[in-house]
Amino acid sequence: MSDVDVEAPGQPGRRPRGRPGYDRDTVLRRAIELFNRQGYDATSINDLAVDLGVSKSALYHHFDSKEALLSAALDEALEGLSSAVAAAADATRDESAYDRLRATVEAAVHILVAHLPAVTLLLRVRGNSPLEMSALERRRHIDEQLATLVRQAAAEGDLRDDVDPEVISRLVFGMVNSLTDWYRPDGPIPPDTIAAAVAGVLFQGLHASR
Amino acid sequence: MSDVDVEAPGQPGRRPRGRPGYDRDTVLRRAIELFNRQGYDATSINDLAVDLGVSKSALYHHFDSKEALLSAALDEALEGLSSAVAAAADATRDESAYDRLRATVEAAVHILVAHLPAVTLLLRVRGNSPLEMSALERRRHIDEQLATLVRQAAAEGDLRDDVDPEVISRLVFGMVNSLTDWYRPDGPIPPDTIAAAVAGVLFQGLHASR
DNA sequence: GTCTATACCGCGATAGAC
DNA sequence: GTCTATCGCGGTATAGAC
């Protein structure tokens, strides 16, 4: 977790004296939240300005363009995901691929939860610009790491053999990524619980254990 | 499956003589495809006109507005889903909730595959307009039917009891709905195969059966 | 059912004062 | 770091001829 420079995190608007306005990171947080709620394309700079209570041009002091906001958000998500997935796969390198896969899935859930807004935005990118295409490419690369783990576990005979490993990868990603549609870290379910639930359902299935 | 009026399904552009141009349904198919590829908000009427090789105003002959295109697409997805889920839950009414749940999941996969473009669009709706909010509400109602089935199966003791039934519902939806991100009916995997794979992984889990 | 031309608006972004 | 004012573009949608 690399921290960013924080200047005046408090409420703006009342201008306490000294430095008014927003710092760059606060603008980014609000932008990500709005992008997720309305969609990136459906969110105008004016929407964000109104939401923050400042004028449009004030935002251009912090970010060169609307796309620069998106870029910063996608970078955060991609860096968090790639480092976490790589670390998880690495920390368990002497175990079976099956165990490493399970550890990686749980790690992916944790990082998704920790960076939920940024990851949500990343997962909705459609590839409409060079920036978005680049993000999709980086994401595809991360996915490939997990797909490799699935193939290894399948080769070791620990996964069901009636479903293609590539399909298994897709289904695993599908369930994990779908958390962005409803899970909230400040809700009633702790991150450890949801990570265990996802891994449990994925690996043991829904049926009651006898 | 209610059919729509089809007039001149053939290739346009060369104007064979008689009636040139497109029928309403062809315009809708292409619109849905573009909306899915670029996102609804990022797709302009001009994009669609260029894609079809006609002028913008020609499109307004078939649909009153851009939103009317979205409305028609969402209706198709919602009608298909609700009727299919209701039918599946109904056809197996004398079996256990567990078996009915599994049958409903497979039916949901099939209908999702059959109406893939429209369902994909539906799942990406954010609620940015009254129309979109209405679609989200109808979708929530369909989800509730499956959630009820999950609760029944849990009450009958056939589901693992270490995960909340509401969470199970979310995870099931997550995996099923994620098919829209990659599955293609004209690809190498037949619909029956993917439906069996999803149900198998969900209910038995990924582990190799001993 | 299509076309050209256009009205009208909101978008991203900039200039320059405070 | 903020503001007002504005530019230029591209958006949805319409008018009316063919």
Automatic annotation (TrEMBL), chains A, B:
Report the coiled-coil segments.
none
Under which name does UniProt file this protein?
TetR/AcrR family transcriptional regulator
Ranges of the DNA-binding region feature:
44-63
SUPFAM superfamilies per UniProt: Homeodomain-like, Tetracyclin repressor-like, C-terminal domain
Kindly give the PANTHER family that the UniProt entry links to this protein.
HTH-TYPE TRANSCRIPTIONAL REGULATOR BETI, HTH-TYPE TRANSCRIPTIONAL REGULATOR RUTR
* UniProt region (Disordered), positions on chain: 1-22
Could you tell me the keywords of this UniProt record? Answer: DNA-binding, Transcription, Transcription regulation
**Which InterPro entries does this chain map to?**
Homeodomain-like_sf, HTH-type_TetR-like_transc_reg, HTH_TetR, KstR2_TetR_C, Tet_transcr_reg_TetR-rel_C_sf
Pfam families recorded:
TetR_C_24, TetR_N
Q: Where is the HTH tetR-type domain?
A: 21-81
